[in-house]
Amino acid sequence: MNRVTILGVGNYLMGDEGVGVHFANMLEKEDLPDGIRVVEGGAGGFKLMEFLDDGAHVVLVDATLDHHPAGTIRHIVPKFAADFPKAMSTHEIGLKDLVESLMLLGRLPPIHLFVVTIPSIQPVSIELSDEVRACLPELKRQVIATSMELLGLAETWALPN
After folding, report:
1. Cα–Cα separations (whole angstroms), residue 116 to 3, 20, 62, 133
2. Could you tell me the domains of the chain?
3. pLDDT tens digits for 74-113?
4. pTM for this entry
5. Category of 138 on φ-ψ map: left (φ > 0), alpha (ψ -120 to 50) or beta
6. CB 46 within 8 A of CB 98
């Protein structure tokens, strides 16, 4: 059976930079079908290897600083570590190193990366900006739709309210 790990990463104490963590915490409350595991990865770096090296498809959610308006969601299917958005904080350096290590070992799982554009990093804040908070329902729709497709359940499962 196909399996999907939805992995939210980021630094919860840096405002919008923690959107992946907020998102994972939100999804953990959902009644998702068998085959989907939600992991709040925080700024785990190499500690996340067990979640990326277990044969499951990975749907990764993270923040990015880029030229798009705050709250923009982009879906990227990275093939190489260089395909990941530019690092914003130390957790992404570890994540890129982890991806490169798994690539060298020939054990990199299929990854779907959802990035949310944030306006800035707010040190010592656990609050999301209004723009980023407002994109969470659409992010949820896109991530679950992708996960259902990866599981082969896209036609048989409806998103809970």
Report:
1. 24, 9, 6, 10
2. 4-151 (3.40.50.1450)
3. 999 877 767 776 655 545 555 667 777 777 777 778 889 9
4. 0.86
5. alpha
6. yes
